[in-house]
Amino acid sequence: MAGGSGTRLWPLSRSGYPKQFLVLAGNTSLLQQAAQRLAGLAAADIVVTSPLVVGNEEHRFMVLDQLREVQATPAAVLLEPMGRNTAPAVTLAALQALEAGADPVLVVTPSDQTVADDAAFTRALQAAARRAASGEIVILGIRPDRPETGYGYIRADGSAVAQFVEKPDTPTAERYLADGGYYWNAGIFVLKASVWLAALERFRPDIAEATRAAWAGRATDAQFVRPDKALFGAVPSESVDYAVMERCPGSGQPLGMEVLDAGWNDLGAWEAVWQAAPKDGAGNAAIGDALIEDSRNTLVHASSRLVGAVGVSDVVIVETPDAVLVADRSRSQDVKKIVARLGAEQRGEHALHRKVHRPWGWYDSIDMGERFQVKRILVKPGASLSLQKHHHRAEHWIVVSGTAEVTNGDQVILLTENQSTYIPLGQVHRLANPGKVPLEIIEVQSGSYLGEDDIVRFEDTYGRT
């Protein structure tokens, strides 16, 4: 499941580029790590097929690009027209999984978590898959190591689930930890596709019926599968836990638990990132170009420049090219309040980074002022921007590296390093990369209005006309 927005990890995570696509450690994103962990479940009695990804329209090309980079190309990317929580999302995946005529076991997992011990994760998931093959629903329970109030808990009765409990207050969480029979709910569960659909039809037939109707009206475009938008909008919004899981104990539907003891972390806030990060002897975690002196239990995440911290304790400092966050580490959940204000004030930092990813590559707005903007643009090999024009701006393009195929009115020309061209206001134009290496250009815009909505598209490879 890859549809979350991760607002509590702002400014690194934003709705246009949420946390599942971020590289928080190492050189792979959380989405890529999730796909690689699942691929590792293969055994003599377990065949792992290509993943199914449930996400949204805005992120569809990022999903494909990132999974192709780690040789985990999905069998399908199921695109929700709007968010309807996790129960409809899992239903879409179950319906897709049954299309080939088989009834596979589904490992349902968020795409934005991390584990420290991959081998322990594999053992727990393999055990869960073997149990699920006989019709049991199996959920992973995380053995708690602290009285956490930010997670829901599972009360276990041996290897069965006795009860789900809501996020507790601190005294209750301390009691759960001392009891030893309570586990964190990681939101990872394993079951056959038919078992999910039967349980949903039993407990929430309204969700099952509405999602099936939207699925019946789906449209397919290569790997992208789009349920009917209007019908999906009528699907009740509900989580997996509320729709099915919490109703299973005592219902006759077997619901089991496998203990996961693998250094799991949901990275739900900067506090969790600090907990998962390597630290020095004073408890400080530095990611990127960061220098920390005379400080304790502090996280510094530097994305684009040197960040120094002196004499601070229990602080989170996160730097990006266009925004800096400084927060008390214990208040990191409240970062969402900043995000809410940005949205209310309609500020661009709410949704997008300065560097914006597009299906064809990316652009980075490196400078702007009155009536001008400068962008650094990268176009992937074989990719092209839309055939377009602008009503309010002209553009100059300078090739930094690679080869550019430029459509400028009736002309089509090739430009190489250090060559340039001018696109007059109102001229129909297109930029393409016909080469085998990335194309990088500098674009200088000038005009009375430079917003991204001043684009009239005539043709587009990515269906945006």
Please tell me about this protein's structure.
The chain is an alpha+beta fold and 465 residues long. The protein has three domains: 7-260, Spore Coat Polysaccharide Biosynthesis Protein SpsA, Chain A, CATH 3.90.550.10; 270-342, no CATH class; 355-459, Jelly Rolls, CATH 2.60.120.10. The protein has helices at residues 30-39, 60-69, 86-97, 118-132, 170-179, 193-203, 205-216, 229-233, 240-243, 270-276, 335-344; strands at 52-56, 76-80, 105-108, 137-142, 153-157, 160-165, 182-192, 219-221, 224-226, 255-260, 285-287, 290-293, 299-302, 307-310, 315-320, 323-328, 355-358, 361-369, 372-379, 387-389, 393-401, 404-408, 411-415, 420-423, 429-432, 439-447, 456-459. The strands form seven sheets. Strands 3, 4, 5, 6, 7 and 10 form a six-stranded mixed sheet that branches. β17 (355-358) and β18 form a beta hairpin. The two termini are 28 Å apart. The model has no long low-confidence stretch (mean pLDDT 94). Pfam families: ManC_GMP_beta-helix, MannoseP_isomer, NTP_transferase. It comes from Rubrivivax albus. Residues 294-342 form the MannoseP isomerase/GMP-like beta-helix domain. Residues 1-280 form the Nucleotidyl transferase domain.
